[in-house]
Amino acid sequence: METLWSDFLNSRAGDWRGGSGLQERMGKEKWQRYFLERWSLSAPAPASGETVKELQAFREQLRALVQHYIAGGLVSEKDLEMLNPVLAKGPVIRCAIIQGGVISMEGVPLRNDWEQIMAEVAASFLHTLTAGEPSRIRICDNPDCGWIFYDDTRNRTKKYCEDKTCGNLMKVRRFRAKKKEQELGKDTTTTSGE
């Protein structure tokens, strides 16, 4: 399951196939428009260069917090001191709505800018920590990937962001490494037996 906050964090990720470096999408207008449309958010795109730097800085702070949390750390007062000012820049009005006969409450953003987007991302992350199951937050086990995801599987054992990409790639890598190890073992047996 992808969340607003994980999609935001994954705007910078490694090449899952082991290619060179990180892929940075945050500054690209195409990614910005995709992100806004995907999550039904509104802000000017393309974002200014200064705004992109602010978004990237926030992303890296949030990524560090997620990595710390996944490693077994707890969210601290210091972490909240980083998140609360971001949340404060994104005011919302609560309103009741009815859809299909069901009443619910939604927060309607008062602004349409990237500061509001950062507040929505922070709120999404905090919602996962407080209302979701934060123990399901993962980083893909493919060391070349680094994709952050929420494990929504029943048995909570998902190791890779996608089984068809990273999962298959890592399976092939393990198979080849085992085969190479076996071949090296045969060579030493043959050489010592001659």
From TrEMBL:
<dbReference type="Pfam" id="PF11706">
    <property type="entry name" value="zf-CGNR"/>
</dbReference>
<protein>
    <submittedName>
        <fullName>CGNR zinc finger domain-containing protein</fullName>
    </submittedName>
</protein>
<dbReference type="InterPro" id="IPR021005">
    <property type="entry name" value="Znf_CGNR"/>
</dbReference>
<dbReference type="InterPro" id="IPR010852">
    <property type="entry name" value="ABATE"/>
</dbReference>
<feature type="domain" description="Zinc finger CGNR">
    <location>
        <begin position="136"/>
        <end position="179"/>
    </location>
</feature>
<dbReference type="Pfam" id="PF07336">
    <property type="entry name" value="ABATE"/>
</dbReference>
